[in-house]
From TrEMBL:
Annotated Low complexity bias: 1-16
Keywords, in A-Z order: Repeat, WD repeat
Keyword Ribonucleoprotein in annotation: no
InterPro entries: WD40/YVTN_repeat-like_dom_sf, WD40_repeat_dom_sf, WD_repeat_creC_regulators
Protein name according to UniProt: Uncharacterized protein
Location of region: Disordered: 1-25
Superkingdom of the organism of origin: Eukaryota
Length: 311
């Protein structure tokens, strides 16, 4: 590079000719700089096709591993007699305030739906388990991000630029993920794939394992059994006792319970009006997902749970 204003010049000569049509200089307040090298990319970089998947970053703070507690009688996460005091109620409304769930669609429009009065019939029962499946005793803050067909985990406080863990997926690319630092059992990380498949895993268990595949994972919507549309966003229900919501490109949201079998049979009625908001619930108590919310006829790009008023 040469600065023609102050006469400074690099000692290394250029061996590569500039490509036709490329600008060979740029101007700054200090002078005019002439480019001697064309930017090249090493062959080890990811293929261009991977750039079509948006990279998301999740901040995960691992607390100290809790001490084993005395086993207690199983309790129901969802009440069958008092309506919804659980996933949908905590996410969308309840208590002295109300909760609004905002959606951003593929056409650029957005809507905010208050459905605290619509979810009163959401009924499901399950037993909660407080047994932790992880045996990693560490703590710290980690960055979780997806690139191409892999999930990478980096130690936020480490000086090492390389991730401490990579998890590869053979059939589809991960596109969204979320972490729950207040999870009562080991499964605190959920991952949505481009194929529509969803996994819940223990972050501690992934960090301890030396392999490049998921370990101890719970698999939901396997092979698109419920929805073959790609996942676009995923989120834990605040205070939902292990419930989480997955948004899909077909305009639907599905509510899952991580304490239930991921292979549980779920069937929902056909959506008659694609432009109309609707809520459908699973017919059986063992079904997973437990509910479907149809928001719009286009893709839901993101979702946000917002607390409005005292809760």
């Amino acid at each position: 590079m040469i600065n023609t204003s102050n006469g400074m010049m690099s000692t290394t000569s250029s061996s590569n000719a500039q490509s036709p049509g490329l600008k060979t200089y740029f101007k700054t307040p200090e002078g005019r700089y002439k480019l001697h090298y064309e930017k090249t990319h090493p062959s080890g970089l990811l293929h261009y096709a991977h750039g079509k998947t948006v990279t998301l970053v999740t901040l995960a703070h691992l607390k100290d591993k809790p001490a084993p507690s005395t086993p207690t009688a199983p309790s129901s996460s969802f009440s069958t007699g008092s309506g919804v005091r659980s996933a949908a109620a905590r996410l969308l409304g309840g208590g002295n305030g109300s909760r609004a769930l905002s959606f951003v669609g593929g056409n650029g429009g957005s809507k905010s739906v208050s459905v605290s009065s619509r979810v009163g019939s959401l009924v499901a029962s399950s037993s909660s388990s407080s047994t932790s499946t992880s045996n990693f005793d560490g703590k710290g803050t980690y960055l979780i991000f997806n690139v191409g067909d892999a999930i990478f985990i980096s130690d936020l406080n480490s000086q090492d630029k390389d991730p401490v863990k990579s998890i590869h997926f053979s059939n589809s690319n991960p596109v969204c993920h979320a972490f729950d630092q207040d999870a009562k059992d080991g499964h605190d990380l959920i991952i949505g794939l481009n194929s529509g498949d969803v996994y819940s895993v223990s972050l501690r268990q992934q960090l301890q394992d030396v392999g490049k595949k998921l370990v101890g994972a719970q698999h939901y919507n396997k092979d698109g059994s419920v929805s073959s549309s790609r996942c676009t966003s995923i989120a834990w229900v605040p205070g939902g006792d292990g419930a989480f919501v997955v948004a899909h490109a077909d305009g639907n949201l599905y509510v899952y319970e991580k304490s239930k079998d991921g292979a549980g049979d779920s069937s929902f009625p056909v959506i008659k009006d694609q432009a109309q908001f609707s809520v459908a619930h699973a017919r059986y108590s063992k079904s997973n997902p437990i509910a479907r919310w149809h928001i719009c006829h286009s893709s839901i790009n993101s979702m946000l749970s917002q607390l409005m008023g005292p809760f």
